[in-house]
Task: inverse folding
C-alpha cells in the first residue's frame, strides 16, 4: 500500500510540475445567512475568485482556489410619517473558503476551446459576519455573527465568451458552520473569468 501511495505521489508531482496555471475572475454575489433559531438574512456583494490548476489535461483540471467574498446587508424599519428609517443596521460578511474543484470544459484550462463547461468541489473555510442582535423564534434577543469555521461545497457552469478564453461563471455554494451559532450560508454568484 505504501508503495502504491508513493507511486501515486510521484506521478502527481511530475504532472503538476508541467501543468500549472493561475486563473482568476471577479463578479457579484448574494448570500443567504441562517443562524440557529433566527430568521434568514440576505447580503449582496463582490467576489474575487483566484485559483491554481495543479493537474491539467486537454479537457479538464483539478484546482485549488480561495473565492473571497465581501457582502453587505441592511435592516431597519421605515417610518412613513417622518420619511426615515429607524434602527438601521449595516451587516458585513466576509467568506473565504479553500476549495478543491474538478473543472471540465470551458474555463477548465487557459487553452480549452470548449464553449460550455462546469465545475464541482468542496473544502473548508472561514466566515466572518458582523455581530448583530436579532430576535429568535421565542422573541428573545440573540447575538449572532462573529467568526465561524466550517465545511463548504460548490458547483457551477461556465460559458465561453468570445475567442480570448474568457468565461462567464454561474456558481452556487453552501457553507456549514461548526460553531455554536450553527451557520448555514447559501451563496450564488456570477463571475467573469479573465
Result:
Amino acid at each position: 500500500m505504501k508503495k502504491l501511495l508513493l507511486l501515486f505521489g510521484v506521478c502527481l508531482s511530475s504532472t503538476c510540475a508541467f501543468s500549472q496555471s493561475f486563473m482568476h475572475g471577479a463578479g457579484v454575489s448574494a448570500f443567504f445567512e441562517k443562524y440557529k433559531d433566527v430568521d434568514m438574512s440576505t447580503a449582496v456583494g463582490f467576489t474575487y475568485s483566484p485559483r491554481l490548476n495543479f493537474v491539467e489535461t486537454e479537457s479538464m483540471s483539478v484546482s485549488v482556489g480561495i473565492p473571497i467574498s465581501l457582502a453587505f446587508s441592511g435592516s431597519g424599519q421605515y417610518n412613513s410619517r417622518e420619511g426615515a428609517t429607524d434602527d438601521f443596521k449595516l451587516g458585513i460578511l466576509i467568506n473565504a473558503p479553500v476549495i478543491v474543484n474538478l473543472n471540465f470544459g470551458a474555463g477548465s484550462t487557459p487553452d480549452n476551446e470548449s464553449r460550455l463547461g462546469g465545475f464541482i468541489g468542496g473544502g473548508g473555510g472561514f466566515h466572518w459576519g458582523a455581530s448583530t442582535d436579532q430576535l429568535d423564534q421565542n422573541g428573545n434577543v440573540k447575538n449572532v455573527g462573529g467568526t465561524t469555521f466550517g465545511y463548504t461545497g460548490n458547483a457551477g457552469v461556465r460559458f465561453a465568451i468570445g475567442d480570448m478564453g474568457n468565461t462567464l461563471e454561474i456558481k452556487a455554494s453552501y457553507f456549514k458552520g461548526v460553531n455554536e451559532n450553527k451557520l448555514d450560508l447559501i451563496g450564488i454568484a456570477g463571475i467573469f473569468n479573465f
Observations:
- The chain has a mean pLDDT of 85.
- Residues 2-18 form the longest helix (17 residues).
- The chain has one domain: 20-193.
